[in-house]
């Protein structure tokens, strides 16, 4: 359903025939907004309780459907907090994974224990990115947090995609917004991409403008948010490539080696155009690209079809993202010389201020 309405919104201007379906989403968005508003009111008044676990909780979330860079933020936070001396775990709902309401330990901090079919791609990506951090997933996230404390003695749990999960109390709410389009098209789901109305920003302690490129639209959005919410910390971030490795062996090569290379690429992530643009910025000659649906399953048949589609372009190698890498079939085609581009969060000049914000929210350092 979610994917259907995303496609409707993306194509409505190009396809007049979708006007009827578009109009049907307006009352649906109204009903959705009413339900969300009532739910939030019940939490605000304490009618619905938020459980306080025996650990600190940092939530990383967003206001819209679709990618704002939560996974790189979670990875950065986990690395930073480990460096500060905290015992850290990550808890995710395991979107599109098969774990459901069970508690799935994706990684125990030393080994990967669950595959992507069980965990979903985002927890799997984090487990591979953070080899020393336990990663758990469950639709019942409060139970997963309790399990992290009991099994791994976690002192801080980072709640991935947790802004709307109000059943769990948190010490710090980080809300990520796309710098160029913080509120999507301004409509609630399913008419638009908003999960909640913009006034929900009041619950966040910090607003993180992701993909901040210094452009006029991004800067205008930053200034407007600062006027609307002067009491909140507003941090701008970008994402930069940090490693290039072979999908099957993990063998690395320098990013500079992409310069002038005839490359083909595919990505099943939100806003894949940013990934393709990054490849071109690294100097790759992108002769073929394919944008797949977000979280799209990857099969050997699909990869073979991509190889055939790009054959006339004669690419020297293929490129994809870390989130796509974890969804690859066990035996991808040997005809696809596939490399993976890793992306990390870059806070730039905001780094010290943001670290101080996190330290203050968590207050004392663990013994």
Tally of DSSP helical segments: 11
Name of the top-level CATH class of the largest domain: Alpha Beta
Question: Helices and strands, in N-to-C order?
Answer: HHEHEEHHEHEEEHEEEEHEHEHEH
Oligomer class: single chain
Number of domains in the coordinates? Answer: 3
Structural class: alpha/beta
Determine the N-to-C terminus distance.
47 Å
Strands side by side in the biggest sheet: 3-4-2-5-1-6-7-8
Q: Can you put this structure into words, describing what you see?
A:
This protein is an alpha/beta fold and 367 residues long. It has 3 domains: 2-44, no CATH class; 56-238 and 347-362, 3-Layer(aba) Sandwich (Rossmann fold); 240-344. The chain contains 11 helices and 14 strands. It has helices spanning 2-11, 19-44, 70-83, 116-119, 121-129, 141-152, 216-228, 273-281, 300-310, 322-325, 351-362, and strands at residues 56-62, 88-92, 104-108, 134-137, 156-160, 172-178, 206-210, 233-236, 238-246, 252-253, 262-267, 285-291, 317-321, 338-346. The strands form 2 sheets. It has an 8-stranded mixed beta sheet, sandwiched between helices. Strands 10-9-14-13-11-12 form a 6-stranded mixed beta sheet, with helices on both faces. It is globular. Mean pLDDT is 91; it is low at 1-14.
